[in-house]
Write a structure and sequence with these properties.
By secondary structure, the chain is an alpha/beta fold. It has twelve helices and 13 strands. Among the domains are: 82 residues, Nucleic acid-binding proteins (OB fold (Dihydrolipoamide Acetyltransferase, E2P), Beta Barrel); 155 residues, Rossmann fold (3-Layer(aba) Sandwich), CATH 3.40.50; 42 residues, no CATH class. It is an enzyme of class 3 (hydrolase).
């Protein structure tokens, strides 16, 4: 830039003032300051730096990402052009530990400072990612990720508990989409830091408050995504175990599809975004009304078909002859009953007559065989006092008292002994 010598008493233009010569009366311009910084930065050589990839965003074939120290004390942003990306030995991703050759860039127009990576090679899994994977394996072994222990979400929650950042886009997305689906939905929101040192304790306190509220039927923990470094709080073991122990179903709505904190694994339901969480927690009133209308229509059709079928069966039954003239059934049966009754009387009469004749014959036989009939013809029965019937004259000794039984009564007689028979 050409040096400018102002006339006495004239203020030089800002572009003409070097930053080291600036003052309140003769300030330099932003462009001159940025150009000076750029000239200084351009004299830096490329350096090799060791770090962990915490962001890896591919846009237009180029990569825009971030590297951090192993202890997380510092980080830097970098860009990696497509031509360099094609020369990398393997596909890199968030969490990889790498060494990168970077050169500083300073953009005069925007005043932004960044680094361009000209080479990069992996050195192993990042320390934090490795610790997270060990914790993930431990929790999986304890059964905290088991689908059988996850609680089902209520069909229509009475109150939805929401844990998210204050005045965040995630909070607006959940409210807007839930209210569009079910206008009468009620929320109980507890704000908490969604990154940094306050994230875990504030989220734990909010979860405890909402889980103890008997009106809250489901809890959403929502954040609008971010790089893995900012999402570390949602992989904290204390928070993960608290969510697993919660009595109220918990929905994880942290970030986007490529984000995967441990909270996603232990939550009762994982939503890819806060908007997705609202759609999964609250039913769509329009869909439910359409479903009710469809069910009513199906029920009406089934009932109508059933009634018509039963009416047809009833008409078939009524068309039968016996139901058209019920008396015909009785008339035909009456003649049959009269015939059977007459036949029965005849049979009984014959049987009674036969029984009477048989009875008479038996009576005659009995009379003929009766001792009384024999006595009636003039015979008598003689027996001694002891009731011994006399069959031999020698049984009645002379002077013995003999009882004689005739047809009408008995009398006593005195035995004179055996009488000789006349010749």
């Amino acid at each position: 830039m050409t040096s400018f010598e102002p006339a006495p008493g004239q203020t030089p233009p800002p572009d003409a003032v070097h930053p080291r010569d600036s003052s309140a009366d003769t300030p330099t311009s932003v462009s001159r300051l940025n150009e000076t910084i750029r000239d200084f930065v351009q004299r830096w050589n490329s350096v090799w730096v060791d770090g962990e990839i915490t962001a890896w965003n591919l846009r237009g074939g180029h990569v825009f990402g971030r590297l951090k120290d192993a202890d997380g004390a510092a980080s830097l942003s970098f860009k990696l052009w497509s031509s360099t990306l094609q020369r990398l030995p393997e596909q890199l991703k968030v969490g990889d530990r790498v060494v990168a050759c970077v050169k500083a860039d300073f953009f005069v127009k925007s005043g932004e400072f960044s680094f361009t990576a000209s080479a990069m090679r992996p050195t192993g899994l990042g320390d934090q990612l490795e610790r997270l994977e060990r914790l993930r394996a431990q929790l999986r072994g304890e059964g905290l990720f088991d689908p059988a222990r996850k609680q089902p979400l209520p069909f229509l929650p009475h109150v939805v508990g929401l844990i998210t950042g204050e005045r965040s886009d995630a909070e607006k997305d959940v409210h807007r989409n839930a209210e569009l689906r079910w206008p009468e939905v009620r929320f109980r929101t507890v704000h908490a830091a969604v990154q940094g040192d306050r994230c875990v304790p504030e989220t734990l306190a909010a979860l405890k408050t909402l889980d103890a509220d008997p009106e809250v039927d489901v809890i959403i923990i929502a954040r609008g995504g971010g790089d893995p470094q900012t999402l570390l709080g949602f992989s904290d073991e204390r928070l993960v175990r608290a969510v697993a122990a919660a009595r109220t179903p918990v929905v994880s709505a942290i970030g986007h599809e490529n984000d995967h904190p441990l909270l996603d694994d232990v939550a009762d339901l994982r939503a890819s975004t806060p908007t997705d969480a609202a759609k999964k927690v609250v039913p769509d009133v329009a869909e439910q009304r359409a479903l009710v209308q469809q069910l009513r229509s199906r029920a009406r059709t089934r009932v109508t078909q059933r009634v018509q079928t039963e009416l047809h069966h009833l008409e078939q039954v009524r068309s039968r002859p016996v139901l058209r003239d019920p008396e015909s059934l009785l008339t035909g049966r009456a003649q049959e009953v009269w015939t059977l009754a007459s036949r029965g009387r005849e049979v009984m009469t014959r049987r009674l007559d036969a029984a009477a004749r048989s009875s008479a014959e038996l009576s005659a036989s009995l009379r003929a065989l009766s001792p009384g009939a024999t006595l009636a013809r003039g015979y008598a029965i003689a027996h001694l006092g002891e009731g011994v019937i006399i069959r031999d004259a020698t049984q009645a000794a002379p002077g013995a008292t003999v009882t004689v039984t005739v047809a009408r009564g008995s009398f006593a007689a005195l035995s004179e002994g055996e009488v000789a028979e006349a010749d």
